[in-house]
Amino acid sequence: MDEGAGLISEAARRAAHILLDSIEVWGRSEAEGLAESELVVQRLLAADAVTIAQDPSSDQVTVDVSGLLQGATNAIVMLVSAVAASTPGGTSQDVIDALRTQVDAISPSGE
Q1: Residue ranges of domains in the chain
Q2: Which conformational region is residue 20 in: left (phi greater than 0), alpha (psi within -120 to 50 degrees), or beta?
Q3: CB-CB neighbours of 66 under 10 Å
Q4: Closest Cα to residue 4, out of 82, 68, 89?
Q5: Stretch (H or E) spanning 72
Q6: Cα→Cα distances 101→1, 23, 56, 98, Å
Q7: H or E stretch including 40?
Q8: Which residues contact 12 (CB under 8 A, 6 or more apart)?
Q9: 43-59 residue pLDDT tens
Q10: Please, which residues have CB within 8 angstroms of residue 87's CB and are 6 or more apart in sequence?
């Protein structure tokens, strides 16, 4: 395990696997993509990576995505570290900067 990575909750571990599963089907048709997105949400809820609670006295809804964020962040940290380690002279910051550029390139605002 990467030295910077800590132990994560079971919900976070399951969330990371669910997200990795969704990457395997990335790029399918729009209809398949929508169906897959709905399945991902259902699986994240079932894994307790995302929880939704409603206070009956106030009807206030609380959504907790901490398991999802922990799982996603840990997976990204491990991938960034692996890419940096496999790039001669590369650093994690180089990989993060390249990812930011790519994310901005696919955004309608490009910012």
Answers
A1: 10-105
A2: alpha
A3: 14
A4: 82
A5: helix 66-86
A6: 28, 20, 44, 5
A7: helix 30-46
A8: 49, 67, 68, 70, 71, 74
A9: 999 999 999 999 999 98
A10: 94, 95
